[in-house]
Amino acid sequence: MRAVIATRAGGPEVLQVTDVPDPEPQADEVLVRVAAAGVNFIDTYRRGGVYRMPFPHVVGSEGAGEVVAVGSDVTTFASGDRVAWASAPGSYAELVTVKETDALPVPAGVADATAAALPMQGMTAHYLVASTFPVAAGHDVLLHAGAGGVGLLVTQLATARGARVIATVGSPEKEQLARAAGATDVIRYRELSDLATELPALVRELTGGRGVDVVYDGVGKDTFDASLASLARRGTLVLFGASSGQVPPVDLQRLNAEGSLYVTRPTLGDYTATRDELLWRATELFDAAAAGALDVRVGATFPLADAADAHRALEGRATTGKVLLLP
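Above: the chain's sequence. Below: its structure in token form.
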């Protein structure tokens, strides 16, 4: 089969498409023919060496496709079933093995592209809004990268719960997407000369001087100071990513001085720690997508051979919605 290999730690140029042996499912795994693989920032962190990985390795961990074989102990899936997954190493390939406990059944009304786009970003949006800071009617939310894959989903889920979403974006085109998803107010951060002071001032102007109840920040280094300064007293900063780089160490006294604030750094694995929780989040998302209540935007697709270009586009913030690779 063809697969995308990261030959060493580095930039997108280290990605190579090559032929490798077909994988064989272990007793507790299903073998899936990949219909679409999700491209995520975590793939770039692993490729770049931010997260420790063996080299060479087949990149990717998310996708959707059709089961073509099952391991001897598998009881819940059979050949021909459609599944999706958020955690199967080696997903940038034509075939991948997925543990039975990580495979998500895909309803008939959900297309392959939608199924591949939802597991990681969809379940991230779900745990952010439903669990890390449970959004409710009357909450004010500041959301960075409002036109990204997670951002568009967070906006829809938060507004469905009655919250007001203030989104930051980088362009007029992305502003239109954020507003279409339900953002009440949109701030184009590239028009600000000093993000750390001007963004909080705008946020407080929009909230009557109070600040927001929660900030969902997947950008990290470039936005962290502005995020803290935008919070209301006892507000919560949820730092769930670092697309601009990792946040330097923080003096915890800042949380005291700026209003008894909370900061958390969650990860999807801790919010899908059991099979029941994993299926709860996935089922709610797939059902909403099938019913037309959740718009899942696939902003760009790339052939498997162009995985390096997909990484460049993602890291260059040139994408909206979800980016997929098509084997």
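The chain has a mean pLDDT of 97.
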